[in-house]
Amino acid sequence: MAARLNDKITAALVALGICLLVYISLMSSLLVILIIVALLVVLLTYCEKTGLIDTVFQLMGKNTTLTSVIFGLFIISLPFLVKGNNDLLHIMIIAGIMGIVALGLNFQIGGIGQINFAPAVFYGVGAYTTAYLSVRLGVSPWLGTIAGVCLATLTGVIIGLPALKARGYYLALVTIALQTIFTLMIINIPAVGGPNGIPGIPYYQIFGYSLHSRVEVFGLTLPYQVNYLYLVYIVFALAIVAASRLFKSRYGIAWNAVDQDPVVAATQGINLTSIQLLSFCLGAAFAGMAGALYAHYTGFISNENFDFSQSLILICMVILGGSDNVPGVITGALLLTMIDQKLADYANYRLLMYGLVLIIILLVRSKGLLPKRIRIYGERDTGMSNGDAKLAAGAGGKR
Fold first, then answer.
1. Are residues 71 and 107 both part of a single domain?
2. Which 3 state secondary structure label does DSSP give 309?
């Protein structure tokens, strides 16, 4: 009993430490954030060598409910901690949206080991679909969001079927071409605003209450970003739960089996086409949802929000944080979004500085800040039945 209580206290302290680290990074300048990242790299490297990081992962996994409550309370209290600062709330909202896309992209990069250079395509399809329906046709933003997710998923099927016939560098080239085609299409199609984009996108409403309204709490007036902060992180939390369960399911293990050796995976009865297409479609659905949230939050979208540079940033989030690892992807999304937003003051050197940060971190932590952990198959660890665990073990083997 005492050991279990100590585990809960330790897990709570780790969760509080993570919240404090996010808060300090959010409130700090670019230089301080870079110093924090450097210290984080040193700390993670030490924990990796001593094996402490595995202990922390196990503690967090055993106390998921407790840590989730702490993270939830942190998000709820964040508007009060930053005193309603619009810019800081905006950074956290964008971080949540990028995190949703990165979790979906991780199904391909971390799951089946295929680099998709076009995540911004599905992100843009979700945004443009709901924007077009709500602005041009007067459809409810909520229905437009559902349509955006559906069309993004359908786009994943249409693109995924021919694209996944290629592997490695060839798939990367195909997705780069698709990204270029998409960007040129939205620039040259007047129906979606062309180079001028789509302005005047309506905001979400809940029972007549517009999420673009200011919030009155305990006599304090908070900006409308508070509404979107809570909405985005509710969706983000659901995406984390879904991604975690998929990672532990037979589908996640089958993805890893395909990544390790497609031929062996096929001999174990895994349908390579369907299992790879599933990762593509799920990633597209996540991106489509994020795109719809972005469109109705900002009220304006253009081709610059969904170009090739955006795809590269999303890929960097997955790789830098740690692919095939949900906590790693979340870490990468939060850190890189903060760094990217803080670099706005250095517009002329933004991409140069961004690239240097990535190169330095990847040289020190080549597998990401939080590399993927070794799988341990079994009912206790994966949440599967004994039969499913045996099937998964035969399909994927230990990693």
1. no
2. helix
